[in-house]
Amino acid sequence: MIPFQGGSGAREVGPEGSCIAAAWSPDGKWMYFNAQVDGTFHLWRQRFPDGRPEQITFGPAEEEGLAVMPDGKSVVTAIGAQRTVVWIHDDAGERPVSQEGSTFAPRFSADGRRVYYLARPNSAFVAVRGDAELWRQDVSSGKTERLLPAHQKLRCFTRRDRRRLRRSAC
Predict the structure, then answer these.
(1) Does residue 42 have a pLDDT over 90?
(2) Cα–Cα distance measured from residue 157 to residue 164, given in angstroms and rounded to the nearest whole number
């Protein structure tokens, strides 16, 4: 926050993360923030001038945008969940690799017969890849199998020769 009249009164406010919206309560005692912290967008508030940021929304849905009602008793935001889906487009048509959760970061095997991808079956949000599962699907049959569970906190990528999948701890 920087004073309009300039000077040395600049200081950071709000949670540590990327702020996309901010608003004041009508009485000037609270600041509200829509910020991405630890990969998810939620609403925060902070008492002015010396309070600490407090998260006020939680859960798998995320908030985008922020307005404080003129009476100061309510805030308005848009709530939703992101979902990404890996689709295969080939001679047989178009189809998703999974109907559940979010899938992302696809890689084909060197022979093109299998597609490897990361998935978060129980969560819509995909910004944090560290808790994703590694899956493989046979392109022609559609048979899918989980190769590595999420609890291993793995980051997966193919080697340059595209013959092996390598994993490393995050």
Answers:
(1) yes
(2) 9
